[in-house]
Amino acid sequence: MALTGFKNLAQKTLNQTKGLTSSLFGAELDKLTILKEQPGKRWQMVFPENKPMPLFNPNEIQITKTTQWRHETLKNRDRGDTKFIGGDPATLTLDLFFDTYEGLPESISGGGSSPLKRVASGAATAASSLTGVYGLSAPNAVDVREYTNKIFELTLIDSDLKRPPVCELWWGAFNLIFKGYLGQLTQRFTMFTPNGMPVRAALNCTFHQFIPEEDEEREKPSSLARDDDPIHVVRRGETLSSIAGQEYNDPSFWREIAKANGINNPRHLTPGQVLTIPVLNLT
């Protein structure tokens, strides 16, 4: 009887926590979305939208970028000479938290550091400890590896691609967070049912930036040619010269933009105006 009462209290605490989360944020939180590369330049969601997902949003995202410089000591000079060599691919590090134990709300953000998550986690852990003592198990709990294995598979060679897939990470207003391959994965299983089935896991993931060679050539600052007709939305204070500087790295090409958009007076630009940026074939 006491055990039943405690479990009811734990469940009530979890439900109240979920309600408090919704009242704070106004709605269910956007979920982190991971896309994996498919043959033919297609992308597939690692976790389909139409299925329940016990993945908590990360509470921290770390992106690191390094550059390489070469320093040469010169005779009779205090500082020597420093030359830029090149940049290294950026890396993204984040922790993914999965929980498939019965009753945990799906919409709580973070993986253990927020007060709301600690309240929910503490109640569930206490209830799970009692079920372990009395030989009970959560009837709706599923093996968390059903979900963590999908992340692990991102490190394996795809039979069609002949290498592990490149991934894209998207999240709500953050939009596209990162594009790269999963270079390192550490899995920690931190909660189990009495029969040893893992129901909670923390995955530490490190993604390395990946830019296809054709995209890298297109993004080089020295490349003025475009292979499509992008648009540019005019912002307050911009001029055709400044826009040409952004798009072509050369303000003198402002006339090309003016001609493509039928602009007679380059001084008359309106914030919000949509301009077509023409292709420059300089070869």
How is this structure best described in words?
There is one protein chain. Among the domains are: 31-73 and 82-102 and 138-222, Beta Barrel (Elongation Factor Tu (Ef-tu), domain 3), CATH 2.40.30; 231-276, Membrane-bound Lytic Murein Transglycosylase D, Chain A, CATH 3.10.350.10. The chain is 26% helix and 28% strand. With 283 residues, it is an alpha+beta fold. The longest helix is centred in the N-terminal third of the chain and has 24 residues, at 2-25. The strands form 3 sheets. Strands 1, 2, 3, 4, 7, 8, 9 and 10 form an 8-stranded antiparallel sheet that branches. A two-stranded antiparallel sheet has the order 5-6.
State the share of residues found in helices, binned by percent: 25-40%
| SS field, number of helical segments | 6
Oligomerization: single chain
From the 3D structure, determine the CATH topology of the domain at 31-73 and 82-102 and 138-222.
Elongation Factor Tu (Ef-tu), domain 3
The secondary-structure element order is HEEEEEEEHHEEEHEHHE
Strand content: 25-35%
CATH architecture of the domain at 31-73 and 82-102 and 138-222: Beta Barrel
- N→C terminal distance: 83 Å
